[in-house]
Amino acid sequence: MLPGGLRVLTERIPHVRSVSLGFWILNGTRDELPEENGISHFIEHMMFKGTRRRKVNEIAESLEAVGGHLNAFTGKEVTCYYAHILDEHVPIAVDVLSDILTDSMFPKEEIVKEKAVVVEEINAVDDMPEDLVHELFYRDLFPSHSLGASTLGTRETVNSFGRDQLYGFVARHYTRNRLIIAAAGNIEHSELVELLGNRLDAFGYNSDRALIAPTIPRTVGSVTEHFCTQTHVVLGTRALQFDDPRKFSFP
Q1: Angle CA 76–3–93, to nearest 5
Q2: Which class would CATH give 3-126+152-214?
Q3: Considering only 133-142, 143-152, 234-243, which range has the smallest mean pLDDT?
Q4: Which of 65, 135, 140, 152 is deepest in the core (most CB within 10 A)?
Q5: Model confidence over 139-174: pLDDT tens digits?
């Protein structure tokens, strides 16, 4: 563990020549207020839109130029920024990921462009019943909780986001005690810690805010039908926690 509660986890796999590296933020749809719905996902997009050191295309090309892969995703409870690279290119991946997480500029013109991109994603869900059925499932399972809201947000909330709001959300939720850096592949733990060095010194200085245990939402049983040209069915209910050892024998 590094100063400020920042955690670094590694698993060395010496017989490969590659490394998977992820910067995991314990923040997702669950942490959003109703008027912020979709902001975690929107911020994930904006992290790739330029820093003081790199333009948009330079971020995209930084790892592609050496045969690597850079991407991110947002879930209900986590946001992950990750890279797949050859072991010799880990320093580049650490530098780029650290850069976008500590020095993203969120240019206003890029915010406008990205709103249109995300709204198109929202529109596309209506044409993808395999995705829509899960949206409906979570909405009905947790009708009065943020876990039931769409990770993408709504057209109204996405179009309302401004630069100051994005920065404010990052300041509150992108804190050192919410960040976990994990790597697997041909890498030594001490080498990764050394590479990180002081690259994340500017990350989440207000991490003295204690992590509050997430509320357990009340689930509601229901049956929802949505008519389209295909049939997709989801059946689900409350189950064991992810870290409960009994989950392996759960029917």
Answers
A1: 60
A2: alpha beta
A3: 234-243
A4: 152
A5: 888 888 899 999 999 999 999 999 999 999 999 999
Q: Cα–Cα distance between 52 and 28 in angstroms, integer?
A: 26
Q: Is residue 11 annotated as a catalytic residue, yes or no?
A: no
Whole-number average pLDDT of the chain: 90
Evaluate if residue 129 carries a pLDDT over 60.
yes
Asked if residue 187 lies in contact with residue 87, where contact means CB atoms within 8 angstroms, the answer is yes
pLDDT value for 160: 97
According to the model, what pLDDT value does residue 239 have?
A: 81
Q: Which two tokens stand for residue 126?
A: 């209506």
